[in-house]
Each structure stands twice: as structure tokens, then as C-alpha cells.
Fold these 2 entries.
Entry 1:
Amino acid sequence: MFLTVFLLCMAGLVALYSASIHVDAPFFKKVVGKQLIWILFGILSSLILVFTQKKILFNGAYIFYWFGIVLILSPFFIGSSMAGTHRWLVLGPFHFQPSEFMKIFVILGVARYLSKNDLVISSFRSLIMPLLLVLLPLAIVLRQPDLGTSMIYILLVFPMLIWAGARAYHLFIIIAPVISILTAFNFYTFFIWVVFVLIVLYLSNEKIWLAIVLFVLNLSLGFLTPVLWNRLKPYQQNRILTLFNVEADPQGSGYQVIQSQIAIGSGGIFGKGLGNGTQTHLKFLPEQHNDFIFSVVGEEYGFIGVAAVLILFFLLTVLLINTAFRLRDRFSSLVVIGVASVLFFHVVINVAMTIGLMPVTGLPLPFLSYGGSFIILCFILIGVVWNLSMERSR
Amino acid sequence: MFYSQNNVNEARRNIFLLVIFTLFVILGARLYQLQIVQHSRFAGIAEANRIRVVSQQAPRGIIYDRNGNIIAENKSQYNVDIIPFEVGKDKTAYTTLSEILNVSEKEIQRRVKKNWRGQFLPVRIMEDIDFQTLAELEERRLELPGVLYSLEPIRSFPTHANLSHVLGYVREVNVKNLQTIKDYGYRSGDLIGWKGVEREYESVLRGKRGFSYIQVNVFGQEVGTIQDKRSVVPEFGNDLYLTIDLGLQQYAEEILGGNKGAIVIMDATNGEILSLVSKPDYSPNLFSGIVKSEIWDTLRTDPDRPLYNRVTQGIYPPGSTFKLIAAIAALENNIIDPKMKIRCRGSFKLGRRTFKCWKLTGHGKMDLHDALVNSCNVYFYNLIRKMDIDLWAEYAKKFRFGEISGIDLYVESPGAVPDKALLDKKYGVGGWAEGNKLNLVIGQGDLIVTPIQMARFSAALATNGKLCAPHLGLKYFNREKNQFYQFNPVKSDSITDISESTWEFISEAMFEVVNSQTGTGRAAQVKGLDVYGKTGTSQNPHGDSHSWFIGFSKDNQQVTAMAVLVEHGGSGGGEAARIASKLFKYCSENLNRQRFVSTKVNDIEAK
């Protein structure tokens, strides 16, 4: 695990080095130098966590959680809005993003709840509390606004629920209304979705009245959504659209994604070599230090390079899953799954974005992307796993 | 243990692993598609992203006169461009620039705005700076980041002759004309010959543009050159030699002076134009590069129309010079006995109308010869009464009046020779009468000609009917093959159905016009040179009559034909003949024309 993390960090540093090769500044003022410092900070924080007693993590989970909520609320009150957003907290020379750290607090909180001794996970009722634990920070971060991060909150909870033994049917009931709303704008997709809901409900052996209620609920949501949407004033529609589009496409028509695909595609099998990526150095590639660092790797090291990075991430995820499987107590196991989910979704969403399989959401790539808060979070996650995995295997 | 047990089974873990594996495989497959399957496509786009092709204008070929004197060559023009982003960084840069260029800051800002292409792309703020300004810019380079100067070849004209209507001018290809000439490789912003020989011989004179490749970043900022793509050096156009004699041209321009008018001097035996003047003219230097709009407007709105080539586009009644046509027609068809005398009392009555002779006291008794020498109107009034209008028109058309001469200068007016059909069309059948004929015979009325037609007319008279197409292009030098080429021989034609005796008669009369005591063209006399001619006075509604002189000189083997027109120059014996005399004299003293013998005849389509 440490080797994969180390290699990923190295890959990130090399890519950042290349991206800042022409910047005329002392090493530690450059992106790559700063990133190195952040990594050292990250290692430090993971070491602190390794030597933190597991009891503190378990018992303090809810306290941490509420502490996190206060943190993500604070940018709204401590005036430091940058371009109308409330993501950053300024502490002296450091700007940090509390919403990043909230990820670990959500993991701990949900894991703590799901590892209650008397919890009957197969009951629908026991799913409500974890969802509330997620929806609260999600609502706050959406207002910051930061769609990508809030998406991670909701995404990380499902694997944890499944891992804890929740019934797939219950999860389906939770997700169904959201899909009903999203599909409602196109008749055919909505029709297919409704048929699908019917089949699932039929197979589920659900009490008949409940099944009818659920079906009618989804159906009416689907019908009402377009009606309500059209009732909204254009500026209200816009406000909602901007919420979901906040990072996407500042220059229009998928420019970023197109340039990113060109960068990756032109890399070929072996890439153009360190410092030779024209897309990178001539700045056709946007956000190359952060969200599109993967494209830099793709352009300069080609298929070999990106395959290596993806294999490392795959190995890391598999290692985490196996660790979670191996651990004897449910809390630790769930935390590790939460960590695995966060890292995995970041990787998949980020990479899918750079190769044009998903819209731009602005999620960074773990260990590679530049960014203090996020890199420290990644190390904290690793530190937590490290700590928990030190218990004897079952 | 206060922790609850982990109760995950292996099946659940395997589902997790399977999902993870599947998603990674999807990502990997997409990467395979992008980087291996579609690699060449994306590599191409990436290249196109970074490479900008900078083209360099090629210098046009040099234009020489027939003796190898340079008429038009190229010089380098230095232009000042700035990169707004770089200059904008330093507040004082604009002030410094304005000091050096001697243009107000506001004006610089205005030009920047006008030519704006992006804050990282060069913007032209000044053209054609002198060497001192350039040196000053170079000196203060460190204070002026983002200020560039570029070099462009433009025309320069080392001679004192203007030759404006011969040379024409070049201009920038605009989007509108680009549609029609794109196939020839022109691009927006190229210079193309637009008028004159610059236009006619565009294919000879045009150079081949060069290219260089530079690497640019996403903002279009230049970031170094590209090693693996060779740049192409611009190629000179081929050199053009004109039939013009520069010395004679300069002299002719000088002599016509401030008069409005036209002069054409050509070799009567082959149609080579030795001099072509249309006044008022303008300095070709105004058109050396891209023409400024102020200059355009001045030239275009000038009431004297300097842009208009009077030689080919100017239409005038020919006046008495046209009596030669009536004389030839009469002689050929035995309409009149040339020895028969007619008395001129100064006027001629037709019905209730009186037609005057220019000599109001009358010429007395005259035969055809005398009538030509003295240019007696009354004689010709009598003559035309006996002649059918179509016969007269037929002879005018034999000399190619009423059609373009085919000179290699773009836009030529055909003029008009009225015959029955035309008059019927204009006035209606029966709407015109003998009176019209009387006007036509003395070269007035609906008859209109251009000076170039008149020059060819005199050349035909000089050579007993040889009709050479007048032309300006002599030969060109192909730089690539290092060889001279001649243009396709211009078609020449002859009038064969006019008898020797008629030519002789006309020739004698024209000699007398210039050399006899009473000849109307006495002013054209040159001591020791045989000058033949005919004067003309064409009345016009705009003021004083235009003064015409057409004629030729025979000097050993050299036969020089000439047409001189002075607008509002009074009667033909005066201004035009005096000018012709000086020019004939110059020709006989200074011209020793060598015939060009082509080393190879190449069938170039000049155009």
C-alpha cells in the first residue's frame, strides 16, 4: 500500500514538475515544490493519525462529525468568499478547503453509526440515519457551491451501506426518486425507467399498498418535475443550472475536455517525453496542475504511463478492499471501505472526465493533483487505514 | 471488545472487486481508443494547435523600360507592430512610443483598437517608418517590450516619370475578390496588380510567398520556432520589360505639363508604345504599399479625375483629323475628282441651317489636297453630301474605330462610329438628316474616339494600312530559367483594299499640313525631319475646344506614330501640334531603337 502511494505521489510530482518546467521561479515557489511540501505535511498528518488511539477515532466520531459541520459552515460567516464561492477558510498564509476534510468525518460518522451493536441493517429504518449524516454536509457544500465534493459525500455512503449489509432493494428505493426526476425531461427515458421500477417492485415481494405508494410517488415526481421546472422563472432555472454547472466549461462547448482528449490522444503509446507535451506547455490544456494532471501524464508518458497510474490505483483500491475484508471489527472495516470509496470515485470521475466519458465536475486525482487540502486529506485517509489495519487480523 | 463484528462475506467482497475491475477496464479501454486507435488523429490536432504558419510577402518582379532602365523596383518598408499585452504591462511604454513615432497616444490607442486581433497578437500601429525612427526604436528597445517591427516589400519608383496610368497599381486582395481568384493561390491580404501593367502582367510579376512556422501557445503568443519544419523563402517575381522609352516618357510628361490631355507615341511598324501619358496623373509612390484611405478619397473625388486613363478610357470627338477618313473613302470610290475645286466662302447652307467653316472669311477655291491641308470644312460638307453615310462609316471601321484597340491596359472604351443603323436607333428612322452627316464628316456629333485609337490610326496611315495592336509588354526575364521570353506576338492586321495612289495622296497632304506655309499643322514642323500630320479641333460643351494632333515621322527606318490631345487646348494648329513637334524632335535625336530579338518564344498567357 505504501509503495503504491509512494509511486503515485512520484508520478504526480513528475507531472507537476513537467507542467511547471518553464516557470521561472525558485523550486519551492513552483507548483512542484509546493506540492512536495504539501506531501510532507500529508505524511506528517498521517503519522499523527497512526499514533492516535483507535478508541479516539471511534468514540470521537460524532464529535469530529459536528466539528466538520462547523468547519464547512464557517466560510459562510468568516468572510473569505472568492468569486462568490464559500469554499475556502483562510488561516494565516494557508487557504484550506474544509469540505475536503469533511469527507473523513462523514466516513467516521457513518461507520460509527453502522457499527452500532443493536443495528438491524436489513431494516429500512436503519438506513435513514446514515443518509441524514450525509445529506446535511451535502446540502451545505452544495451551497458553497461545490457539486463535485458534495457528490462524493453521497457516493461514499452507498458502498459503506452495502458493505454493512443493507438490502439492495432499500438502496433502490432511496435512489429511485432522484432518477425519476432526472429522467423526467425525456419521455422515452422516463418510460423505460417507469417500466424498470414496476419490474423491481414486482420482484421485491413488497406489501402491495407500499408498492403502489412507491410507484405513484415516482410516477408523480416524474410528471411534476417538468411542470414545476417550466413554472420557474428563467433566473431561477439558471440558478439551478449554475449550481450543477459551476465548474463546467468556462469557455464553452466542451473546450477543456476536447483539449484534454487531444493531449491524451496525441500521447500515443509511449508519450512525447518529459517536458515535450505541446498541449501542456503551450497551455492548451486547462487546469493542468489540478483537475487535468492525468492528461499531462497521458500526453508525456502515453498509454504506458496512464496504464501504470491506473494499475497503481487499481492495486491501491484492491488492497484497501482486502484490508477491509480482513479487519475484524465492523467500524474499522467500514472506515476502510469509506476511504476506498472516496479514493476510487475520485479516480474514476476524474479520469472519466479527462477522457470525455463524464462531464467536467472538478474533482482532483488523488496523490497526483496539486492542492494542499486534498493531498493532506488523502494522506489522512491513508493514515487512518494504516492505524486501523494494525489490529490483528481475524 | 466494544466493537461489533465485521460480518462481511467473501461474495460481497468479490462483487466490490468486480465492480472496481469493470470500471477500471472501461477507463483503460477508452484510453486505448484515444491513445492507440485514434492516436494519429489527435496527434494531428495537437500539431495544428501549436503551429502557426507565418507567410511572408514575396517581392514583385522589377519593371524595366525597353532600354533596361528601372521603372519600378522593390524597397523594404518597416512597419511597427505592438503586442498589446506586453506593451500594456508598462504604463510608460505608450508615452515613449508616442514620442518616438511622433503620434499622439490617443491615436496609437485608436489604431490598436482598429486592428485588434487579440491581446497576444501583433497589431500594426505604424507603417513605413524612416530609418531614423527605426534606429531610435532599436536604441530604446529595453524600454519597449512587445514592440516589434516587420519588414515588407513594397514598390518603389526610382524614376522621375510618373507613368501612373501605364503602371497602374497593386492593392490588397480583399475577401470579395478572393472568391474568384482563390484557385490561383491568393489569400486575403496579398498584394495583387489591380490596374495597368501591374494587372495585365500579374502572372509575370507576382512572386511566390514564403512561409515560416512558429510555435504558439494557446493565447497565440509566439514561443519559438519549429525545428522540424523547413521554412520557405519567398521568391521574387519575374522581371518585366516594357516598350516604354523612359527618357521619352519623362519628356512627354514634362511637355504636357499642367494641361489635361493625352499623348501616345508608338512605333508604327510594330505597335510598341514608346510613351503613354494621361494627365492629370499622380505619383506612383502614393500606391507603393497599401493605399491609405485618405489618398484614395482625394484621388477619387478630384474633379479632374487623375485615376482615369484618358488614353484608353477618354472619349472625344476627333475633330478635323477625321476628314482623312472621308478623303480616303471618296478617293477609293471615285466619289469626287480630287482635282475638282470647290469654293469656300466661310459657310455652307443646308436648307435653313448654316454650317460654318473654321475660317470665317472662307478659303476660296480648293481641291481635295488643299482642303485637307487647310482643313476646309465647306469642302467636306460638299463631299459628304455625295457620299452614303454607311460608306463613310465603313472606312472609319476599316481603321478599327468603334472597337477596342486591344492594348494591354485593363479597361478600354470602344468609342462609337455612327452609321445608319446606329443613327436610326438613336434618333428613330427619319429622325436624323443630312445635318448629322455634315457634323460627322468634320469629326463632330455622335462620333467618339479614344487617343489610343487615334495613335493606331496614324500608325496605319504611316505604314499604308498596317494595323498593329498597340502594346506595352516587350519581354520578360524568367528568373528561374535565367532566360528572356517574349510575349505572344500581338496580332497585326492590314488594310489591303486601299490603293497605293490613295495612300500616296493622303501622305502628301499630311506632309503639306505640317510643312506648307498655309498648313494648319505648321507648328509641328521639325527641321530636317519628315513629319506628317493632321490637326483637329473638337468642340465640346464644357469650354474651349480640345486640340488634336495626329501624325508620324519617317526617319531612316524608324516610323514613329503619335496622337496628342490637349483638353481645352484651342484650335488644333496650336497647342497639340507644338507639343508633337517637340516630341518628334526628341524622338529623332534621342531614340535609336534596337529591335528586341527573342531568344525563345514562349506562349505565356499574360493575364
Note: The longest strand of chain B covers residues 70-82.
Entry 2:
Amino acid sequence: MMMNPAAPPFLDALAAATCRALEQAEIGLPPDVLEVLERAAAAERNPIARRELSNILENIALAGERRVPVCQDTGVPIVYLTVPPDIPVTSELFDGVREGVRRATEAVPLRPNVVDPLTRTNTGDNTGDGMPVIHVQPGDRFCVTVLPKGAGSENVSRIAMLLPSRVGEIPKVVAETVLAAGGRPCPPVVLGVGIGGTFDTAAALAKEALLLPIDRMDDYEQEICDVVNRLGIGPMGLGGDTTALAVKVKTADCHTASLPVAVNVQCWACRRATVEVRR
Amino acid sequence: MNLTTPLGDEVLDLRAGDEAALSGTVYTARDEAHLRMMEAGIPFDPRGAVVYHCGPVVQDGQIVAAGPTTSARMDALTGFLLDAGVRALIGKGGMGPQVVEQLRGRGVYLTFTGGCAALAAAHMTLRGVYFEDLGMAEAIWVIGVDRLPLVVGIDAHGGDLFETVRQKAKAQFKQQFNTEPGNDP
């Protein structure tokens, strides 16, 4: 698609930034994710698990050398925009992001993953109704953050509307989610846990939690992570010490009678990148 | 063990947890390709063949990225392939009890590290394609492989590493929470 000549001047820059962020996210993992993977590989005691982790590290190095995606499931594009006050929030902003996704689909290349939910017809360029998913928030800098999300881990994500009296059972709900998922989400996983808000915001919080650096956890996150790792599911569900690389929690206030808990499961390829829009 | 396609009875010697390196030819197939093959027939010689649960990224006649997809989606779509002589499946995450039974005495389920698309591609050469109209992810790609490093997930004798790990994890859960895991949180 050519940009409309009357389009605001930042649109092409936004498309370029989106494309660059996707390329960066797909080809290399963030340093915090690499560090946690390396730590896990060094600490792992199960021989099959050690081999799986070494395959993962070798794969990441190869993807970087060859400038190819770390995983063939290049995901669906989840995009977070921070928009400074002088940029109008109009539909054109969304057009710029969509154009960036189209460009990245050709350039990286990304696998065309986006289909009509009922007919399953592929749109061919990773855009469609509601795709990319775009979240807009006010900010000081004009930035685009991408989180390409694969299906294997997304499909085992869950939400629970707990009784408020069951607040102590949140680690158990997370462990149940991981246990039910087994090897399907490509463990070692990163777990984004959204607590509070409403049915829908809990899920959004869980996904946003996956944007947080994973090389540090608070005590609550570490407690949940330990509970999960004691299950011994291991890399790819083949057994081992490393089932979760990290747990990240985000909360929002909620109704006094509600306790929404969402667990967004993320495979080891915890892809994310932020690029500032040059204008 | 080194394996070369077409596979024969040597697969019966493998045990869950063994390492294997596969050379020869594999055919990619996901949900749509399985459904099409059930309707229109298998477009390749299935005897001794290896089916890879994978939707690769292909660019300019090259395999760019080709890690495994979640095999459980093919649980109910696999019997006809084994009946036709397919000897091995490659994927990730393991397969259901009906496939464990269908593999008995005939074939194995091999697992390649999920997400390791670049590593897989480094062992691969593109040789052809069937059902290209299904789209890049769902078409059947004919791929030459050279010593692809795999782990036996399910053997031909009912051995299932995924199930063993799952049972241990369930027992561990019970120990931690003093209750059975619920399916519905």
C-alpha cells in the first residue's frame, strides 16, 4: 500500500518504526531473556533438558547470524503505542501500524498467520479485522512496542474469575494452568499474570506483564515461579528443573466481589522490542 | 541412533528418551494438510515416510524457519497415515493416548525442540511442495534433512516420555497443594 500523499508526515515513520520493531523482535531476543535462558542452562540437572536448552541457545545464535526469525511461528502482532500530546489519535495512526506490519511480513519475512475466525481464510499479510492488536496510551515519546505472540503458548492461556476469599490460591491457579499445558506451550515459559480489574482487563494485564524485564522478580513472583518449577515439566515437557523462566505479575483494582486472575503463557521465545518513531 | 528414510523396523528398537539423528526426507503437515489428505489421498509414498508437524517460513525456494508445531492438534487426524505405512512423526508437545496406541508395533513420535526454527532450517533443504493452495503454513513441503537432532518422545511399545513427566508433575502438584489439580480453575 502506498501512503496517501495527504497523510500526516509521521505515518510513514510510524510504519517504518513498526516494521523495524517487528524485525528486531523476531530475529533476536531481549538481553534479559537471553541472560535468564543462559542461567537456566547452567543450572539444569536433567540431561535431556540440558540438551533442549542448548538447542534453544544455539538456535538463537543461528537466527542472529542468519538474520532469520528465532521461531517459524512469527506470531500475531500485538502493538503498544505511546503517543505524545502533539500526535492526534486518529484512525491514521492505526493505518501506519498496519502498513508497518505488512512491510515486516514481506521483509523479515513473517509467516502470514492471520485468518478469518470462521472461514479460516488467510488474509495473507498479518493484518485483518482487529489485527494487529493495537493498544494506545499517552506518553512523552512517540514509541512503538511490539510483542509478536505465537499460538502454542497463547492457546493454553487461561482466565479464572476466583472468589475473593480464594486470593491465597492464585499460585495454585497458575500451577494448574502450567500443568494442564504440559509441553504444548514450548516451555521453559514466561508467565504473565494479570490480577484484578475486570474479565477483560485481567487478560490485558497478563499480556502487558510479558513486556516487563524477566531478569528480576519480586518475592510474590518468585514464590509462584518456584511452585511451577517444582512440577518438573521441564523444557518441551520432557522433564527437568526449568519449566518457567520467570513469572511477572501486574495488578489493577477490582470490584469487592471479584477476583479475576489471567495467566498469559509465553514460550521461551519471549519476543518484544521498542522503537522510537523518528519524525 | 542414526536414522535414514525410508524408515523400517529399526524404529522398533528406539525407546522413549533416546536421542536420534534423522537424515533423508520429511513431509510437513499441519491440520489442513491432514484434512486434505484424508479427502484427496496422500500425495507422497507413505511407506517408511516421516511426517513433520511444521508450518515453515519459505522464501525464494529456501527453508528460512521450520521448527515443530504443537502435535496434539493432529491427535484425531493421524491414524490413516500410520495405517498407510508412515513410520515416524516429528513434532512438539507429545500426542494423545490414541496415537500412543496407533504407534504400537509400527512407529515412533520424535520431538524436536519447539521454537528452534533457525536450528532446524540449518539441517534442511527444500525439495518440493504439495497442496500449495493451502498457504505457506498449511501446505505439504518436501524437505531434505541432514542429521536433524531429535529425542524419542513416544516409542513403538507404549513408552511415552511426556506422559511419564505429566504423571510425575501431577503427583508433585498433589504434594504441594494437597488436592487434585482442577481442570476448571
Note: Residues 10-27+70-148 of chain A form one domain.
